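A further point concerns the way the authors explain their paired sequence and structure data. The central task, working out the structure tokens from the amino acid sequence alone, is never made concrete. I therefore recommend that a typical entry be quoted early in the introduction. An entry of this sort, consisting of the sequence and the corresponding backbone structure tokens, reads as follows:
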Amino acid sequence: MAKVKKEEQEELLEKKLWKAADKLRKNMDAAEYKHVVLGLIFLKYISDAFEELFNKLQSGEGEFEGADPEDRNEYLAEKVFYVPPSARWTWLQGRAKLPTIGKDLDDAMDAIEKDNTSLRGVLPKAYAQEKLDKQSLGGLVDLVGTATLGTKEAQSKDLLGKVFEYFLGEFALAEGKKGGQFYTPGSVVQLLVEMLGPYEGRVFDPCCGSGGMFVQSTKFIQAHQDHYKKYTNNLALNPLDRISIYGQESNQTTWRLAKMNLAIRGIDSSNVKWNNEGSFLNDAHKDLKADYIIANPPFNDSDWSGELLRDDARWSILGQKLVPPPGNANYAWIQHFLYHLAPTGMAGFVLSKGSLTTNTSGEGDIRKRLIEEDLIDCVVNLPTKLFLNTQIPACLWFVRRNKTHRKGEILFIDARN
């Protein structure tokens, strides 16, 4: 009974933090406040992890004998971000009641970026802006300071992961339609990943939002380690090293969320790229052939620059050129995914349900070609109203380059109820 109560308390941490943080928002827009809060949570996490290792180095016991607690290389060796003195949580929390707390936080984010190349251009620096009430900001610093997020014990329970995911979901709800740009419901992400089973290899999401597909892929590997051992000799690797991730995002603030979301999990995000042209006009991974593609592209996007890309090499399906319509990107995404699949690769992605039946501007011909070449493995009909940013009914497509089972067949799963 005591164990159940303890678990309930842990589950409540993210909800408790959210309620208190939301009260401090006052008249600030959720889209902006999101970066303020998530930036502070990230800062608390890396500061906790840093201070735990700092104390061990300072004590100089065992393997840390003679170590210098201010040597950045000591932290690099342990995969911990180095936090300079002016960015450490204890110092910042001591200044929470001062009117300069906004500038102190901006300076702290700058200092962390200078000392950690993987975070350059990623952390929010919006704390000194006038419209952000400094008393509320100080209250937020005190509030986040009550949670222990980055110690080894907290990491083993994935406390920060739970808080970050919960906050992303709540902010997506608060933002409504725009929230869908960075957030796919966890149940949908989990279903896609469980059905694909990315045990090892290259995982690609060319419209990666805040990186949820990558996070779930690593969770999948960690949850299925025993099963994984049957299929590989690669037993010595850390679960996080069994997949390499590749992503692209056109919204810079969403890309920053993804970089933070992955950094807190220790996932290498060096191949998660941003450019504002997006995957169609400026493919950041032109030569990539991925083992798994997992994605939730924008539904029925009419503004994808299709007219500029009529001669693109991606529109060839096994030697036959079929150009997707310029007024709807759904089939352009399918062909983009296929183009980036390795010879034995699989893709699972969300599309509007209309993609299953449409015959507009050659879409029916593309779908026919996909079926004739036996590239479609499975289709899942989803329940309605799952997505925050649209009422359009959705489905999941699974395509596979080299079907080893159900040859000549497509599995249809009706999960509407």
Notes: The chain has two domains: 2-173, 182-414. Residues 182-414 form a domain with the Rossmann fold fold (CATH 3.40.50.150). The beta strands are 201-205, 243-249, 272-274, 290-295, 316-317, 320-321, 341-352, 376-381, 394-400, 411-414.
